[in-house]
Amino acid sequence: MDLTTNAHSPRTSPPLHIWVVSDGRAGIENQALGLAEAVARKTDARIFVKRLVWPRWMRRVPSRLMPAWPRLLDVGADDLTPPWPDLWIGNGRASIPLSIGVRRWSNHQTFVVQLQDPVRDPRLFDLVIPPRHDGLEGPNVFPIIGAAHRVITSRLQEAASAFGAEIDALPHPRVAVLIGGVAKAYRMSLSHSKRLADDIEGAVTRSGGSLMLTFSRRTPDDARKLLTDRLSHLPGVIWNDKGPNPYFAFLGAADVILVTEDSANMPAEAAASGAPVYLLPMEGGQARRRRFHEDLAAHGVTRPFTGALESWTYPPLNETDRAAEEVIHRMSQPRLNPSASDTRLHQIAAIRSRLRRIVGR
């Protein structure tokens, strides 16, 4: 998929060719695509989305044992052949062996960025951009608060305008509710869903406002049905997976946002809107995710949810643009083979990061 993008500042040289490489799952792909779009806002670029499909047996192999052979990709995968891109942005387990391999195939002419913590030596990539709450450190590691995403003010405004017929007449405050679901460290039982429904219904009713509700692919079907049935009497819009997704429109039109704490993507995207954000509790928990929530609170994005909806302001969180600036800066620097001292620094940083992750879990 070719997404040609014009930057604000024209380049006299040919546009950068950027490959966005993942298994195509929306949450994974959108992080890499968001970073690519942020780079393209700063310099002319052509963005190509590359979706990977590994054979079923390969999906069970640990990423460090997966061979970096594009010819093993299964039917339905996008073509990965030269000419190699100027910038490769990989995300997710499926991309890791190929992200490592493309540096060699391109004779180190392709600048390789890997998002999230690849759980591999960061020296295998040109730049690793993990969430800060993962605790990964190193000379070529650039942590950010939360995850990269596609949320920018103009996109939210355009989306809100496109859904004007559904949203414009809704009473204020307009409360966007973003429901996640089951994750590695979180659960969403039917009893907990009932408590969420009670909390959301009470908050919207007391505020005199309206509801804009959307679900994640991870939301259990029974929880989705319960929340829909319980909240459908409120003024507002509940997305039922039919027609265009109003997710960006909800963020753009929201006066306040409620988002479940299990997600890493949705709170980061909500934080880019500038609207007040409350985190809704879920069953379970994780030390790394709690560190993320502490980062958001320290930035002024979130406050504890007590049932009352308040209004406050904060500078919208713009970590994706900050990461894009770092990518462009590093691409402009000479890339030299690492010295022995650099290697030792990487090894020490990697060991420290792993220890912090083990203790922090």
Task: Describe the structure in your own words.
The radius of gyration is 21 Å and the shape is globular. The strands form 3 sheets. The chain has a 6-stranded mixed sheet, sandwiched between helices. It has a 6-stranded parallel sheet with strand order 10-9-7-11-12-14, sandwiched between helices. Helix 6 links the parallel strand 9 (210-215) and strand 10. It has 2 domains: 2-145 and 321-360, Rossmann fold (3-Layer(aba) Sandwich); 153-304, Glycogen Phosphorylase B (Rossmann fold), CATH 3.40.50.2000. It has 11 helices and 14 strands. The model is unreliable at 339-343 (pLDDT under 50). It starts with a strand and ends with a helix. It is of the alpha/beta class. It has helices at residues 26-40, 96-105, 153-162, 164-167, 190-207, 221-231, 247-253, 265-271, 287-298, 319-331, 340-360, and strands at residues 2-5, 16-22, 45-51, 87-90, 111-115, 127-129, 174-179, 186-187, 210-215, 236-238, 256-260, 277-280, 283-284, 302-304.
